[in-house]
Amino acid sequence: MVLFLELIFFLAIGYYIYQFVQVLFRLGHHVVLPISEKELLGIRKHPDKLIYHPIFSRQKRGIIFYSCLLLFIVTMFFLLFFFREEDSINWLLNVMFLLPLTYSDDILNLFAIVDDGILSGNRFISWNKIKDVQFIPIDMNHRFYGFNKEVNNGYELKVKGRFRSTSCVVMSDEMKDKLTEIISEKANIQVNEAMKEVSIK
User: Fold this and answer.
1) What's the rounded Cα separation, in Å, for the pair 107 and 98?
2) Which residues cross the membrane (predicted)?
């Protein structure tokens, strides 16, 4: 049982570290969007917070915080492993409860399109792993409605990968059209639009 839980822990933390390294490797390199200040203002991870440039210097705080979080969890695992009581799995369960902290992709205030995929928070989704993309109008029934007038006229872009999904707020029709064009070209998929909704299948 303990061996099985240890394997799950290593697979999970290994996946999060791998995703984080993928993001770090692509920061500042081959960025397609956003490049200009206008494009930067057209996308948000959260409706009331502007995203930062997809470069190390602007993402430094989030990178340091998330790196420390991963290091803390791995350190706690090894400390509790070496100082655990015999035949006890409580120590491992305590560490496993920390894993959900690594799931959030809002730690890095980042959303960018690069040559080979999408960077969103602490994750990277390559074009071939994208299963579905939708633009959802932000109306009175949407969770982001009411933050400000700009958001109320915008869209939520949802990108679904094989195992996880991510989203951002698109502030204008112009940015929506630009994202639609880039995603359809890069992912080599057809974009269908109807009733203010874009679905990529």
Assistant:
1) 15
2) 6-25, 63-83, 89-114
